[in-house]
Amino acid sequence: MSDLPRTPSFDLTGRRALVTGASSGIGLGCAAALAEAGAHVVCAARRAEVLADVVEAMKVQGWSAEAMPLDQSDISAVDAAFDAPFDIVVNSAGLARHGPALDTRTEDFDAVVALNLRGAYFLSTAAARALTQAGKPGSIIHISSQMGHVGGVDRAVYCATKHGVEGMVKAMAIEWGKANIRINTICPTFIRTALTEKSFEDPERFAWIMDKIKLPRVGEVEDIMGAVLFLASDASAMVTGTSMLIDGGWTAD
Fold it and tell me: What is the pLDDT of residues 37-56, one digit of tens each?
């Protein structure tokens, strides 16, 4: 046969991407994955000096990148970042202040909601508005969490924001689908980063984590990189309004 189907391309050459929370952890992994696939990646986060180091390291690899200091909870600053549309937007900025629900302080609740849900919402609308005005398709990807699908100990506020992001994405996918603007989430389990080491060092908490994960290890940043490349590329052209669970089987039961 001469008409065999061909795999859609994962190549991102010529595309412009914005990754928030790109200075470390999952966000850094996402930025590296997109840049390695050929995209020009704008790395955004609050820590300007760390961002500069990240971008320099990416350029050493021969990748195309630049830094954009950005506080995603500042909606006017987010709007200003979209003076031109991005083909790909990855939101990996996030905040957690874990503790018993009865001990939640209003200032902690407001801070987590302001970044995880309010910031995600208005980053999405800014991205979609710029794409719509330019008449371009695009892919918006939120790094959500398995906690957007289940509950967790001492995580009532965090779970509330991540469940909110999951519902937000479904509604936005319905609104923006006809414009060929796709929006999805990636929902990781516990990923080994500087921010999760405290949980892994607590024997009781680590035992709980390993009991819930069905595979024999916790997640690594590299486990997220293929997923973000898939959702950013033409390989996922028919995927919108859904979540990709990278949870080692946490939510299987």
Answer: 999 999 999 999 999 999 99
- Select which of 63, 158, 190, 230 is catalytic: 158
Our answer to whether residue 121 is catalytic in this structure is: no
Residue 152: inside a domain, yes or no?
A: yes
Residue 85 lies in a domain: yes
Query: pTM for the whole thing?
Result: 0.97
Burial of 101-134, coded b for 16+ CB within 10 Å and e otherwise, reads eeebeeebeeebbbbbbbbbbbbbbbbbebbeee
DSSP state letters, 75-133: HHHHHHTTSS--SEEEE---------GGG--HHHHHHHHIIIIIIHHHHHHHHHHHHHH
Query: Total domain count for the chain?
Result: 1
Whether 45 is in a domain gets the answer: yes
Q: Which domain holds residue 179?
A: 16-247
For the cut 90, the answer to whether the pLDDT of residue 1 exceeds it is: no
Task: Give the dihedral of Cα atoms 96, 26, 175, 149; nearest 10 deg.
Answer: -50
Ordered DSSP codes for 140-154: EEEE--GGGTS--TT
CATH number at 228 reads: 3.40.50.720
CB atoms within 10 A of CB 148: 23
